[in-house]
Amino acid sequence: MKVCVYGGGHIAHSIVAAISQVQDVNVVTRRPLQWQSRVDALQNGQFVAGKHNVVPTSLASSCAEADVVFIALPQFAFEEAIMVVEPIAHAGQTFCFVPAPAKSALYSERLIAKGADVVAFQRVPFIARTIEYGKSVSISSPRSELALMVSSQRLKADWDAKCRLWFGCGARYLSSFLVAAFSNSNPLLHPSRLVELFKDWDGSAYSHAPLFYADWTDESSRLYIDADHEMERVMRHYPVVDMDKDYENVLVHYGVSGVSELTRKIRSIPAFKTIKSPMREIDGGWIPDLSSRYFTEDVPFGTKTIQVYARLVNVETPVIDCLIRNVESITKREV
User: Fold this and answer.
1) Per the confidence metrics, is the pTM higher than 0.85?
2) What is the end-to-end Cα distance of the chain in Å, rounded?
3) How many C-beta neighbours within 10 Å does residue 330 have?
4) What is the pLDDT of residue 141?
5) Nearest of 139, 177, 144 to residue 19 by alpha carbon
6) Which end of the chain is more exposed for a tag (fewer CB within 10 A), N or C?
7) Phi-psi category of 222—alpha, beta or left, where left has phi over 0 and alpha has psi -120 to 50?
8) Which residues pair with 5 in a beta bridge?
9) Quick count: other Cβ atoms within 10 Å of Cβ 106?
10) What pLDDT score was predicted for residue 44?
11) What is the pLDDT of residues 199-228, one digit of tens each?
12) How far is CA 178 from CA 34, 109, 249, 299, in A?
């Protein structure tokens, strides 16, 4: 079985490192010369040397030769990637979206029309940070179970086995690719913190850059929980969504019962402790880094999508609307 990973970011590095523990893997990247033939991992504090060959290329056409193609890209890059792989997609292939973009339903339809299968990961298998580009990656907080959307029922047994082989955990299956449009992970988590951090920003510099998670506050937790409640109400208006299978509220996900407990939990997660707020240093202090994916991806491709689906079924979302308005005020651009 030939596997190809399309992408060169943190998540792509982690997928390459994990899969190359058991087999060779190809990588489609804009910087193939910076990749080495083995990718090492620092996994939960333990160094894991790469075992099998990593073959980098800049030619997306190499995806045509793969049995499984992982597309591991930011949401804003997905449309271009689909346009590249769609003409070469064919029966016998499986394309995997990691993580599933909000437009998974549309993208999967296009690939299925070419005879290919599609698997979409609701969340990433690990929290990942590239240590040295093309050479090593830090992997932490592996999932105990991966939630997947699949284009065919026959894929279920096969992909449970693949997830166990490559990522060390089993899989459960969601009801529809539409579920990818509703995420209470980054699209609600990140703007809840951004608003609390920067809602009063007047363009002047801050004296310091707080940690994004380790300095998390009750105000952010409250926004996060309230936005999640709104998203749940929206989801209930879509018959193809099975709430029992497809939705887990924030408090259940983190194993807490309220605002203060959620704050303490988020502050305590080891993999989050050193993550900095999206800020850049200038003379005199720190200002928001408006090029951060927290601004450029999570809100326009995540939070906004939830709002659009809410409008389609006439569900009011005042907290989600507030998150979007505040981020627009910070960035001075409409999402």
Assistant:
1) yes
2) 41
3) 20
4) 85
5) 139
6) N
7) alpha
8) 27, 70
9) 12
10) 77
11) 999 999 999 999 999 999 999 999 999 999
12) 37, 11, 17, 18
The residue behind tokens 């200002």 is: 287
Q: Which residues contact 230 (CB under 8 A, 6 or more apart)?
A: 310, 315, 317, 318, 319, 320
Q: Around Cβ 73, how many Cβ atoms within 10 Å?
A: 21
How big is the chain by its Cα radius of gyration, in Å? 20
Which helix (H) or strand (E) covers residue 160, if one does?
helix 155-167
Measured distance CA(128)–CA(138) in Å, rounded: 6
Given the candidates 1.10.1040.10, 3.30.450.40, 1.10.1200.10, 2.30.30.240, the CATH classification of the domain at 182-331 is 1.10.1040.10
What kind of architecture, by CATH, is found in domain 3-180?
Answer: 3-Layer(aba) Sandwich (3.40)
Six token digits for residue 104: 């998974």
Is the Cα torsion angle 284, 287, 291, 292 positive or negative in sign? positive
Q: Taking a C-beta distance cutoff of 8 angstroms, is the pair 326, 199 a contact?
A: yes
If we measure between CA atoms, which residue out of 287, 269, 272, 302 comes closest to residue 332? Answer: 287
* pLDDT tens digit sequence for 128-155: 999 999 999 999 888 889 999 999 999 9
The residues with which 132 forms a beta bridge, in sequence order, are: 136
